[in-house]
Amino acid sequence: xxxxxxxxxxxxxxxxxxxxxxxxxxxxxxxxxxxxxxxxxxxxxxxxxxxxxxxxxxxxxxxxxxxxxxxxxxxxxxxxxxxxxxxxxxxxxxxxxxxxxxxxxxxxxxxxxxxxxxxxxxxxxxxxxxxxxxxxxxxxxxxxxxxxxxxxxxxxxxxxxxxxxxxxxxxxxxxxxxxxxxxxxxxxxxxxxxxxxxxxxxxxxxxxxxxxxxxxxxxxxxxxxxxxxxxxxxxxxxxxxxxxxxxxxxxxxxxxxxxxxxxxxxxxxxxxxxxxxxxxxxxxxxxxxxxxxxxxxxxxxxxxxxxxxxxxxxxxxxxxxxxxxxxxxxxxxxxxxxxxxxxxxxxxxxxxxxxxxxxxxxxxxxxxxxxxxxxxxxxxxxxxxxxxxxxxxxxxxxxxxxxxxxxxxxxxxxxxxxxxxxxxxxxxxxxxxxxxxxxxxxxxxxxxxxxxxxxxxxxxxxxxxxxxxxxxxxxxxxxxxxxxxxxxxxxxxxxxxxxxxxxxxxxxxxxxxxxxxxxxxxxxxxxxxxxxxxxxxxxxxxxxxxxxxxxxxxxxxxxxxxxxxxxxxxxxxxxxxxxxxxxxxxxxxxxxxxxxxxxxxxxxxxxxxxxxxxxxxxxxxxxxxxxxxxxxxxxxxxxxxxxxxxxxxxxxxxxxxxxxxxxxxxxxxxxxxxxxxxxxxxxxxxxxxxxxxxxxxxxxxxxxxxxxxxxxxxxxxxxxxxxxxxxxxxxxxxxxxxxxxxxxxxxxxxxxxxxxxxxxxxxxxxxxxxxxxxxxxxxxxxxxxxxxxxxxxxxxxxxxxxxxxxxxxxxxxxxxxxxxxxxxxxxxxxxxxxxxxxxxxxxxxxxxxxxxxxxxxxxxxxxxxxxxxxxxxxxxxxxxxxxxxxxxxxxxxxxxxxxxxxxxxxxxxxxxxxxxxxxxxxxxxxxxxxxxxxxxxxxxxxxxxxxxxxxxxxxxxxxxxxxxxxxxxxxxxxxxxxxxxxxxxxxxxxx
Amino acid sequence: xxxxxxxxxxxxxxxxxxxxxxxxxxxxxxxxxxxxxxxxxxxxxxxxxxxxxxxxxxxxxxxxxxxxxxxxxxxxxxxxxxxxxxxxxxxxxxxxxxxxxxxxxxxxxxxxxxxxxxxxxxxxxxxxxxxxxxxxxxxxxxxxxxxxxxxxxxxxxxxxxxxxxxxxxxxxxxxxxxxxxxxxxxxxxxxxxxxxxxxxxxxxxxxxxxxxxxxxxxxxxxxxxxxxxxxxxxxxxxxxxxxxxxxxxxxxxxxxxxxxxxxxxxxxxxxxxxxxxxxxxxxxxxxxxxxxxxxxxxxxxxxxxxxxxxxxxxxxxxxxxxxxxxxxxxxxxxxxxxxxxxxxxxxxxxxxxxxxxxxxxxxxxxxxxxxxxxxxxxxxxxxxxxxxxxxxxxxxxxxxxxxxxxxxxxxxxxxxxxxxxxxxxxxxxxxxxxxxxxxxxxxxxxxxxxxxxxxxxxxxxxxxx
Lengths: 991, 465
Hints:
The complex is a heterodimer of chains A (991) and B (465).
Chain A: H1 12-20, H2 23-36, H3 61-72, H4 80-89, H5 94-103, H6 118-127, H7 135-143, H8 157-167, H9 170-186, E1 190-191, H10 200-208, H11 212-228, H12 244-252, H13 266-276, H14 280-290, H15 298-307, H16 310-321, H17 335-356, H18 358-361, H19 370-379, E2 384-385, H20 387-399, H21 410-422, H22 425-451, E3 464-469, H23 474-484, E4 488-493, E5 501-504, E6 512-514, E7 523-529, H24 532-556, H25 559-568, H26 574-582, H27 584-596, E8 604-607, E9 621-622, H28 626-640, E10 649-656, H29 679-690, H30 692-700, E11 710-717, E12 722-725, H31 736-758, H32 770-782, E13 798-802, E14 810-811, E15 816-820, H33 830-855, E16 868-871, E17 875-878, H34 890-893, E18 902-906, H35 909-918, H36 920-927, E19 932-936, E20 943-947, E21 950-953, E22 963-964, H37 967-971, E23 981-983, H38 984-990
Parallel strand pairs in A: 3-4, 3-10, 5-7, 7-9, 10-11, 13-15, 13-18, 18-19, 22-23
Antiparallel strand pairs in A: 1-2, 5-6, 7-8, 11-12, 14-23, 16-17, 19-20, 20-21
Chain B: H1 2-33, H2 40-66, E1 73-83, E2 86-94, H3 96-119, H4 126-145, H5 149-167, H6 174-205, H7 227-244, H8 253-256, H9 262-271, H10 276-283, H11 285-288, H12 292-313, H13 319-339, H14 343-363, H15 367-378, H16 399-406, H17 411-446, H18 452-464
Antiparallel strand pairs in B: 1-2
């Protein structure tokens, strides 16, 4: 990662290093740098949450945000207006602001002897948000005198009244303000507007108002879409096997056709390149030379060119580096080819634009020289006094009660302006964000501490033990299950349950990995039918239906068959239209029933056990050996502390999500299985744990599973809250009653879970009857017109790693990842280290992707879903043609609170410090502050927070924790984020 | 007795059909215009009332017609204004064609309105969307129930403007606005055809009213012109229909129109707006068949469009463009059917196509889900296009053919560069000549006033840039 650290503006030294390389090598390095800064989202079907700014993880969080927003032109934090609203609503209070101000260096320093302190200035700016008008507007407001009519409204009514009474009359106040302005404007610093980018396109836009991106992009998007297509178009692009550049050349080398004016030079250029057999790198070098880019600027030029269509460029890079993630088959796409095509088109466009530019530059010749163009572009940026800064200082001075006399010396006026400029929007938002996080952190840590005296130990003889994914969406399900049945014990673990496999289900066309993305699976597990004859019948029926619906699908897009379709059945399509518009749920059920009619899925088993044989087609081991299975089962059970007191039934619950009208469906699946559905993992784990030989070996290793204990795999659909149980026919007859009770308990908990989820949907009434909740959830999952099937990970904020007893009975509002970990059996922290190394990047990736997609839905997220248009089966564009949009849609994140994940670990600080020192993956996240870390001592319960490189004892602010009768009492009728609360129902059950 | 009564009341009833959506449009927008925030429930309630009311009255009219209580007829609902001997009569036509198309349109609008309530929930432009949908419904009602070309034109324009504004729904990005402008320019250019036809009819015959020829089931425009005039009117109407229905060479705007929210794309470009061209020609079929030249040209345009759509659609890689070209193909065939005189077939084709295409566009965002299930059923990938080196074996993948398809037949380049570009060049030339001559004149005058000379030059330079 470090070797390929991305280049950013100002790294002159490495730029010089590039000049020393030969051009091809320099381009390779430049492409490598640029590649890491492109979006790294895989094709949609394999969507996995990841840190949007993963490439910046080697830097401090705030530094990374500043650099990234400069590079991409994106928003680093919420807007100041949003923060102002949080202050107004009490989401940020003065304690939070004082806390972050106290931590900011230089606060006590005075701007000049006797002048205000920096802290005072900062406090004023954080609390009083106002807009800075453009320099022209400021000049106009001055000349019209509008600025001096009264004190600025942003300073608040009290300060305005004080200013007026001090001046004694409006006229005198006006004169005072004018004098203040004059002092400040006399000290105004001069600034040059920044250059608008370094590409030729930017110079053309600035100097001649011609945007060649508007010419090039539609063509490039069409070509890129055709090349990357995974099976949308009926006719594929010819010569794709030879690479993108070669395929484009094959298309454009023949002359003729009707082309837009700017493209007329393309045939000749491309034909010449083909004749000279220029490869991608040569073509790029040719284009850079044609654009007169100095060698030292090549890396930056390459980067900024690729960023112009960063989604598509990033997808080329994904095809190149992760061909295994493609839905259908590999295509030899390379980033170099993409850039070569882009630059070829840009060069042709540039040449045409220069012939058009003469009118703009009025400089004789037939074509404008590039040098003239750049000179003209530079001339449009004269240096000017920074009136914006003067305006801000003017308002700040009013707010701090300064007048012309205080600023009599020019150095004071200048000091004020400089201090105002230094504490710019970015700095203010950084502190406001810290205050925003501080508020929630204090609330959660206080609640955890306040809950400790009331925590209760787990049931001694549990009737049921259920292991869920760590996913914060399972928090509510676990809570309701425990509330309803106090004799149930629940656990949380990464949702692949240690079974890192490649899986092919009975119906699947292709196997897919079901494990965290950082792991490469080495085992293949297949779902096989028990009865070959039943399976054959099933397959025949399915194939027949598949062929029929495929015939219909292709017919509709065909001219003649389409007409026949329209005339014969088109009118009948009114029926499904009425169904999906007016009765979405009933209609979906009907369709589902028709689909299942006459299809009987045969009973199946997973082939979990193998003897080490390698499958020749995939190169993966077929199943796991007994030793491997023992390791997997032992690893999970001992880490969670489930090593004694087994219940008759241990339920392992994987999860996933199924929805319609949702190109981002896979984003709601389980992150720990790499964006897959974790049911098969749970099923495989249960099969392993029930294996007699595995149990015998576990007993040898000191983990004796009771003979009367049976593991059952299950699957929870988080969208419609349905449960599926696997291999129930294998459950011993003696456990039949227990299994039936388990199903009942889970069904009741799922209903309550759906009920709690529905409070977030405005489509559901604020007070919803419990028996309508499931209907409502099902409707969200099956409605073609529903852009919010579920809210996914939105609102995630905390991760608690430790024993459940510290959070059992605590209402955490579906905002907490819960990972079971027993520190008693892990003195050296080895298990915790492995756990953190696997879980921290998953949790951080989810929380940070939500963070970025929320704070900048256009720059980091993919905006509203409504115009999304699926392209090539790999991504979405906005409407007709745009850059490939990456990140999360607004409908997924709209209720999120953008904060870094607060990770609370039940471990000693010594253990955690050791892990941070030895695990580089964890260290990057913790030391560079991409997550917040807190330690709860396993013995004393004392809390310490990791700040500025070390653990600092945490002093709770309040020990109040609301007590509620039940979860339902707490949330019913309320839509927004809820505070933590202690649930009495459970406490009393326990008594 | 009863028919007389119906006749007397139906003029007022029919006025309500377009009026109710217009009222709903106003009721959605007016409070917001005055800064009153209204809820989604209010807007939806207003819209539902408007659409259901209009549908109710439309149904009533259809029931009267079906029950044989009233014959297809034109009813007058008063006079809008009069200038000299010319007057704008508000006339509605009640016949099977208009009521079938109008009734179907309102049904689709009602379904999409219901569908969009969930789809657009919490979207910033929720109210704007419904207001425009109501304007669209009013336009459709007017077009289908118009008793004269004049009335039809009003509806035609309402459909055009609501379509344009919905393409530009996401007006924060430049793409939708640019593509909306493109659609708008195409609409306006082709509307000229409709206006020419109306003017010709008024100048020569005093009105452009529809009548019921003999005992025909459909009202239509009587064939009164002859010779060159009939050709002019026929081709003008065909020109108007070609723009609205994205026929070659005006097909370029349709795929670009897929910028708005999915439901509006579905109802405009899958179902209703795109079929208005054929509807106009069905109304004016006598003009189309006035000369074999017009009919032949229509068949030619229709088949060329179908061929174009089928070819271009085959290489599209995004779902909405694929569906847009699917629409282009089918509408082309419908045009050809009208050219061949297969009017009933054309009407059935319109309704059948609108039905399944709307559903297809609404289902477009679920493509990955559907494809996954289809592949599971088939047991293999639907991978007809994924053969990497298909270069040699099919004529469609010959570089020239494929490029032609990928560049959408070069139609956009043809229109923007060869037509609009040439026009702009000519205008620029004229502008430059004017500059030159006024400059020379000014210099001659200013020569007498030495101080003013520099100012004149600067001004000239400012003009150039």
